[in-house]
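RECORD TYPE: inverse folding
INPUT: structure tokens
STRUCTURE:
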């Protein structure tokens, strides 16, 4: 059970059945991170002093990678067959093309 929860071992793995870091980052859709930064900043108004606080930066880091990975990862988990046929998939904007084995090992 714990072997399925392990972190990827390589940036760009050669085994299509194993999750690698590149695929994991693609799942979080970094092409949309600028939009998410704006959405994170919008409620702060013009309170620029928040930019100097650690909770602000920790929250921003959380919003960009883990939260996006959770949201988009669930979406990709439910759409594996559909995503395999989608030509836009496989990049940093629209997410990774994953097999069910890859997604299953990451969850």
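DESIGNED SEQUENCE:
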């Amino acid at each position: 059970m714990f072997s399925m929860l392990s972190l990827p071992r390589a940036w760009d793995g050669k085994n299509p059945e194993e999750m690698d870091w590149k695929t994991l980052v693609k799942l979080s859709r970094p092409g949309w991170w600028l939009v998410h930064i704006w959405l994170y900043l919008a409620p702060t108004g013009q309170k620029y002093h928040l930019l100097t606080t650690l909770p602000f930066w920790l929250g921003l880091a959380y919003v960009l990678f883990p939260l996006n990975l959770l949201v988009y990862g669930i979406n990709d988990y439910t759409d594996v067959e559909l995503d395999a046929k989608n030509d836009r998939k496989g990049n940093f904007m629209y997410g990774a093309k994953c097999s069910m084995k890859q997604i299953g090992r990451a969850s």
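NOTES: The chain has a mean pLDDT of 84.
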